[in-house]
């Protein structure tokens, strides 16, 4: 703090009267007081005038107790001692010396702030260090500095701020006292404040009142001094500690060292707390991973295993954990666990209502697509609001208070199977970079657990299958033995070089040869002369290549006759892959060959009969078509005559309502008969027509038919919904009849609807193209579906809807002529859909 500077000008005589040279010669502020007059001030030197900020008359008007209340308690002649003054002058601590001057008492003040700080800083730092060593959190460490640091510096206020490197802002940790010079509760954007300046520069600030006013660009009317020291650990800024003073202060070297030592101790304590928290987290993570390993050995069901892992994660590493698997392009939650039971249902509703898509923008999709860890350190309310989500989704997400997240892909056997999601909410610590390593290891072990569970399930399934296969093999061997005994099959063995050796009871029973006769290649003597050479050559090739031997041959059996056999032989290998022996089987197929010959003869006869019947059927169809054509053609003239005679009869009758009614019925029947005749004639022509297949664009064809139907739609509201239709190979004219019939029916049977909707769509498969025509008309009863495509079959009376009952029959004939099929679906009052298919190519 130092001496009080004296003014350069000469002190006016009015300040001191009468002048006392010895008083002015004293280097410290000194006043003379009269103990007999209640301690009233009688005189003072210039330094005292400047210290107390009052002229001599003002000083003489008061008492020592009024000037310095703290001195009133001292006894006259007491030894000099340091006092802490509340506001008598610029010094926080003073040494007081009293000595008598005649009947008066001289009170001399000297600056003891620096000395006091120097004397007490060691003790305060020792106490503060001890207190900080006991702090278990950053908040407790900040509280120690706020209380003890402020008291040691006699500051009006103290504040601590933490620096959030993720959000890149200062967050208030705590404050005590009242200092209008403080930076306020939010200072992340106030670059002109002392705290932000100290953080940005990395250097401590010790500012008197003039400097504070200059930086804050304001004048509170009260002398304000401030200290702002960054909390540095190495090159990393952890925050800022700030002290405010309601008086103009100069900060000596001892005070500066003390404040910087306090800041250093706080930074070390915070780093120790961080390291302790990191160590605790590492222990928790190691314990979690250990438990994951235990689950590897105890849990075999994959879904139950994932559920157990999710619960382990929320015991210390997340507020909620979910495992997603990919299905149909979506990432769907397979298992889910939440630390808070009340939030469990809320989060479950969100996950079920709003699935994550693999090609979407979120962290889950990104982790799955790019096969890497995706960490979102801090999710602020502003970030959530900026997502522009639907109202319900936004409200649920805000209610869950998501703070930070990690998404890690799950890989089993080199293949991605899903994503592990870890989420922290509320005020939890955000996920940091070291957490990624834990998440990856957790996901790796989860993947191993899944793989283990899958392998265990596959092993059990394989064991069950093996047991089943063993049972089947046992049964098969029993059946095989029974079959051999019940049928004419003979087993034999040969040496690795293809020679028959040892006793061969099967071959001996079949051929009647003795062992010396069939030894070596003697067995070949019993083959038919025409089969012997090819059989021996094929056998030698099989022996040379160690491959399957299979051939048909005729063998002279024990009774001297020849029978046909299917011969199969396989090489049996030892464990060292050397050839051990050949095992062969002669299966008697004599009766089968005879049956085969008989079947071939029957097949030839059947083909002859089918060809004859086909010719007869084709001739009958041609005769039937000619008959239908002739009948329909010859009926047209009589029908026209009936109509003409009915017209003549109408003119003869004149105005006779009773008779005209019958004439109307005759004319109506004649008209319907003419329509039916024309329809029959068209049906006959369709059956007789030859297909001329060409590429037909269904979209162009449908547009043309819709244009033809347009005149019939006058006054109706009809919406056509025609999808993109492919091109097909078909007879263009006949296919146009199909579409005209189906679209015409859709228009006709939807009449009476306020708004008619007709839809045309197609579906392609490797084998065929399926076309559908759907309307919202009257529909039909499904039990009568089989009658729809028959000739003259109608499900509605002709008074309701006109028609001949031939159109759909014609549709079926044309489609089947193309090799396709027709069918329909519908319900009364709900419309109908008619389908037809055409082969591809």
Could you characterize the architecture of this molecule?
With 841 residues, the protein is of the alpha+beta class. The chain folds into six domains: 13-111, 2-Layer Sandwich (Beta-Lactamase), CATH 3.30.450.20; 116-279, GAF domain (Beta-Lactamase); 327-458, GAF domain (Beta-Lactamase), CATH 3.30.450; 489-579, 2-Layer Sandwich (Beta-Lactamase), CATH 3.30.450; 594-674; 692-839, Histidine kinase-like ATPase, C-terminal domain (Heat Shock Protein 90), CATH 3.30.565. 46% of the residues lie in helices and 23% in strands. It contains 23 helices and 27 strands. The protein has a six-stranded antiparallel sheet with strand order 13-12-11-16-15-14, sandwiched between helices. It has a five-stranded antiparallel sheet with strand order 2-1-5-4-3. A five-stranded antiparallel sheet has the order 7-6-10-9-8, sandwiched between helices. A hairpin with a 4-residue loop joins strand 6 and strand 7. Helix 5 (113-134) packs parallel to helix 9 (253-298), helix 20 packs parallel to helix 23 and helix 21 (698-709) crosses helix 22 (732-749). The longest helix is centred in the C-terminal third of the chain and has 64 residues, at 590-653. The chain is elongated and about 160 Å long. The protein starts with 20 loop residues before the first helix and ends with a strand. The model is unreliable at 1-18 and 179-192 (pLDDT under 50). This is histidine kinase. Its EC number is 2.7.13.3. Residues 476-546 form the PAS domain. It comes from Deinococcus aerophilus. Keywords: Coiled coil, Kinase, Membrane, Phosphoprotein, Transferase.
